Each structure stands twice: as structure tokens, then as C-alpha cells.
Task: structure prediction
Amino acid sequence: MQKIYRSLLTTLLFASVSTGALATEVTVMISGGFKAALEKLAPQFEAESGDNIILISGPSMGKTPQAIPARLARGENADVVIMVGDALKNLEKDKWLLPGSRVELADSSIGMVVKQGDPEPTIEKQADLRNTLLQAKSIAYSDSASGRYVSSQLFKKLGIEKKVKEKAHLIQRIPVASEVAKGKYALGFQQVSELMPVAGVTFIGELPEDVQYITRFSGAVTAKAEHPKEGKALLNFLSSAEVQKTIRATGMRSVKTERPINPRDTVQ
Result:
């Protein structure tokens, strides 16, 4: 009986090790805009594929060492990168990506938050947004695509660039909403999908459509990917029709969807 028990135990252990050995770790470098969507969808992909997803976070652009281009340049490994489409195009030009592997994933709009409990201003129209910005004690924006638009174009479009210059602040690397939640800034602007997951803030809504800026998020397999097949399978999964409801629930838009995000929508 003891021999039979040992034999059975050995068989089970061997089966467990063998099954684990078949699982591939797909390493994904990802910027904040699409991260919430991938975190929600990862368990489904892992269950269906048998592979495991390893996430490495970093901005799509900027000067911080954590930025995805900087990580790749110093030799960090990744099978897939998911980031702002324009920044991805630069990686493609520099030969960091596997040719033909780019996949369009989602569109992301810019929204605004205030600290939870603070008065909730209206930004439905340009005039409302302009008045809100002029009255705010401080304004925060990111060091990525949304922040570049806010600082270099939005303020100009609203004719308030000089008036808000001293109270507008660039936030590097960390979520803008987290600084607003701490009370460091009165208003925070970033991709809606990066604002919504942060506790301690109230999502006011998207920028008005006539001054909105839509950022495309895309993914690609890297040129030095250890698991290119599995990486492409992940991108195909993330762009499939079956996952669009989950992507939209995180505050992003399907590539062909133009519906603005309502602050009253509930994110599950």
C-alpha cells in the first residue's frame, strides 16, 4: 500500500511540474491608459490560453527611467508593448517592433477629477470648462499624451494659457488622480481610464467634444520577443469583439465607438 501511495504521489507531482512547464510567461510593458482593461481581462486570457501575463508598467513617453522606450533602450525584455499609438510608431521606426505585429486596441479620451467631497464643477461646454479652470486654485496634468495636449493646446484653445501658467503642474509617472486625492491639486486631467480606478476622487466627466483629444492605444510584439506567438495571441484577444464591453467599462472607447463617457456610468 505504501509503495502504491508513493507511486501515486510521484505521478501527481510529475504531472503538476509538467503542466506548469507548459505555461508561458508573456511579458507586457504597458502604459497606464490600457492597464486597467488588461488587468480585468488577464484572468480570462490566462484561463483560455494556459499562459501567464507579467506586467511591467511605464509611461509611453517622457524622460523618466520607467518610460517604455527607456526600458527597451537599456535592454529590458518584453514580448509585447501596449502604449500610445504615436509613441508606438516611434518604436517601430527605430526597429524595436516585429514588423506587421501592430494591433489597434482602444481609444482613450481625456477627463477631469476633483478630490472626493469637493464641489463638483460643470465642464460640459467650453465656457464651463474655461470658467472652472480660471477659478481653480491648482491644476495637475500628466507627462504623457494627455498632459502634452492639455498644456500645449487646450489652454491655448480656451484663451487662458497665461492666466493658468503659474498654477498648472506637470505630474511625472504617477497617476494624476492620486495627487488630487491627497489634496495637493484641485483639478486633475488625464486619460479617463487612468482616472477612474483611483480612490478618493470624483470623476467629473470628459472634456467637451469640441476641445477633446482622443488618444489611440495600440500594441505590438517586440523584435526581441522570447514568445512572439503567445504575444500576438494576447493582442488578438484584446482586440476581439468579446472583450469590448470590459474595455469600455474601464473608461475607454472601442476603436470605432465615439460615445462620450458619462460620469454617472458605473464601472464594475
Remarks:
- The CA atoms of residues 33 and 194 lie 5 Å apart.
- Residues 8-20, 257-268 have pLDDT under 50 and may be disordered.
- The longest helix spans residues 2-22.
- The domain at 2-107+216-249 is CATH 3.40.190.10 (D-Maltodextrin-Binding Protein; domain 2).
